[in-house]
Specification:
Rhomboid-like fold, two-stranded antiparallel sheet, single chain, 2 strands, about 300 residues, 2 domains
């Protein structure tokens, strides 16, 4: 993703590797760093120079603790910026998807995970109250092709977004976008059964569009892909386009929140923003569908 605006803004590139774009700042010196230069610390990710200074300033007690536990530094947890959350999501979702393919037992697993608004309102139906289905449906799929396409998209998007955002932000975006997809299904099409990570995937695509636009990148290709995939849901039966819409809207909102709360002193506002979005989704899903079902 390149454009004249992006190229001219050197803050969008790692200060140690000027050819590598990134969305992550060192939490000490506030310089942009790429995945290779990121070291997870108690304050967030820090760059190699700040890590070196941190080690140099350690007290004798901290140095003894590091030697005792065999660590290279008291604050070091992970290196390299590998998209570990993406890999975990791929593994868990793929395992569940493969278990769903087992005759008999797979159908029972699907029934236990799929979402329908009727599971939120036991007083209006004979179904039990099972609100966790709002999220469990994200990890279930309707067949091998459905699973494979979503996992391919997750792998491609995760490789870019997770190192840019960080693991916690990426996971929050994925799960809340998936929740947004389920809420949209409950509001627009109550009574519709749905499974799949499409809402979360569309959230990631919308986020990449927003973040790319924010840093001055050329987002035309992302916009075209997002538009084609969204339109595809209207012409092919069995696809819950409502989940695509809800996930994309929520993913875009979270991306806007992230782009405006990058600095360490704004972290509390970022957390509060995520909490507000989640609470609003829960309020909407428990208020709107009953009105429609009772109408």
């Amino acid at each position: 993703m390149t454009s004249p605006e992006f190229t001219s803004n050197r803050d969008n590139y790692c200060y140690r590797h000027p050819d590598r774009q990134s969305f992550v700042l060192c939490q000490r010196c506030m310089r942009t760093i790429c995945p290779e230069c990121q070291t997870q610390a108690a304050v967030g990710v820090i760059c190699p120079e700040c890590m070196k200074a941190e080690r140099k300033n350690r007290t004798p007690a901290q140095k003894r603790a590091a030697r005792r536990w065999g660590g290279g530094g008291a604050v070091a947890i992970a290196r390299g910026g590998r998209p570990l959350v993406t890999y975990v999501l791929l593994a868990v979702t793929s395992l569940i998807g493969l278990l769903q393919l087992i005759p008999g037992a797979g159908d029972q697993l699907t029934d236990a995970l799929r979402f329908n608004a009727v599971y939120l309102f036991p007083n209006l139906s004979v179904f039990p109250f099972e609100p966790w289905r709002l999220l469990t449906a994200v990890f279930a799929h309707g067949g091998f092709i459905h699973l494979a396409l979503n996992m391919l998209a997750l792998w491609m998007l995760g490789q870019t977004l997770e190192p840019m955002l960080g693991r916690a932000r990426f996971l929050a975006m994925y799960l809340i976008s998936g929740l947004g997809g389920s809420v949209a299904v409950a509001v627009i099409a109550p009574g519709l059964y749905t499974v799949g990570a499409s809402g979360a995937i569309f959230g990631l695509m919308a986020a990449l569009l927003i973040i790319g636009r924010h840093i001055g990148a050329n987002v035309t290709g992302i916009l075209v892909i997002l538009g084609i995939n969204f339109a595809f849901g209207f012409f092919v039966g069995g696809i819950a386009w409502q989940a695509h819409l809800g996930g994309a809207i929520v993913g875009a909102l979270i991306a806007l929140l992230y782009t405006r709360t990058r600095r360490p002193e704004q972290r509390i506002w970022q957390i509060l923003g995520l909490a507000v979005i989640t609470i609003l989704l829960i309020v909407v899903v428990f208020v709107v569908p009953p009105m429609i079902l009772l109408a």
